[in-house]
Design brief:
Elements (H helix, E strand, L loop, with lengths): L14 E6 L2 E8 L2 E7 L9 H13 L7 E6 L2 E6 L25 H14 L9 H12 L4 H19 L8 H12 L8 H13 L5 H11 L5 H15 L6 H25 L5 E2 L8 E2 L8
Antiparallel strand pairs: 1-2, 2-3, 4-5, 6-7
């Protein structure tokens, strides 16, 4: 990331520019490499905004964003960090992005998605990734894995995403939590062994909190999405939990489930970011683009 340099602004197909307030981002191809130039507002480097924009571009492009050179300029200080240019051999680290390019080089909504994600995670001012970006990393990594590992990666990523983005969904009512507490208090009266009592007490305690499965179902219902999105998550999670090789007719169903769940994951993140522009529906035949309805008012 470099600032303070004179560079030519052009309209070639290997160049993109987008802004957010006083901050500017330029993505271009030069000398066989892709460069991302960032100009941050004052104090942006200290707040690790150069990490946040990498996370945002990773999400918007569906690609692991791993710069081999990071050039940071702050006042009179210029610091360069060099990393290995070698990519893990034999693997294609990719995932279909929230908005498919469909052969079109210029799709401005892609950078609107990056801007929305970047804006949402700006309050996170640590060098380590935002929690949501870590779940998305798992989702992107799954794109280059065998189908069995994709099932595990995507279904687990969905749980992490809904837990991070919508912890308020499917909350357990206080009356039910009180009932569970009363049941826990009466365990001592049942004459159970200490080991069994601990296990029953733990199982009852888990009932006081919303499960990620409940949150996923609540999101699907709230957004008026097809119930099959949730059913796809259940099938993939069950397949991943039991392990084994996926063969025969199950492959077609699993691929359809993966597309459904990819769409669900992106829908959750985009809603979390407040983005309501164009995205790609991987759960529908032909992967059509569409603009989701604004969130329902309570």
């Amino acid at each position: 990331m470099r600032t303070g340099e004179t560079r030519t602004v052009n309209r070639s197909r290997d160049y993109a520019r987008f802004t957010l307030g006083e901050e500017e981002f330029v993505l271009l191809r030069r000398d066989g490499a892709t460069e991302l130039h960032c100009t941050f507002e004052k104090g942006g480097i200290e707040r690790f905004r150069h990490i946040r924009i990498q996370e945002a571009m990773q999400f918007a492009l569906g690609q692991l964003f791993q710069p081999c050179v990071i050039d940071v300029c702050t006042g009179a200080l210029n610091r360069k960090t060099f990393r290995s240019v070698r990519v893990r051999e034999g693997r294609q680290l990719r995932q279909n992005p929230p908005l498919s390019f469909r052969g079109s080089v210029w799709r401005p909504e892609v950078y609107q998605i990056a801007t929305a994600y970047y804006s949402k995670i700006l309050p996170h001012q640590e060098e380590r990734w935002h929690r949501l970006s870590s779940h998305l990393y798992f989702l992107i990594e799954a794109g280059g894995a065998p189908i069995e590992l994709q099932s595990l990666g995507v279904s687990v990523a969905a749980e992490g995403i809904v837990d991070t983005c919508f912890p308020e969904l499917a909350q357990v009512e206080q009356a039910f939590r009180d009932e569970v507490s009363n049941a826990q208090a009466k365990l001592a009266e049942l004459g159970l062994s200490e080991g069994l009592k601990k296990r029953v007490d733990g199982a009852l305690g888990n009932m006081k909190s919303a499960r990620n499965s409940d949150r996923l179902h609540a999101f699907v219902t709230k957004e008026h999405n097809d119930e099959q999105l949730f059913e796809s998550w259940k099938r993939l999670r069950n397949t991943a939990a039991h392990g084994g090789k996926i063969e025969g007719r199950a492959i077609a169903q699993t691929l359809a489930d993966l597309n459904n769940l990819l769409f669900l994951c992106y829908s959750m993140v985009l809603r979390f970011c407040g983005y309501t522009g164009m995205q790609t529906n991987y759960s529908a035949a032909g992967y059509p683009d569409f603009a989701p309805q604004p969130p329902a008012q309570n």
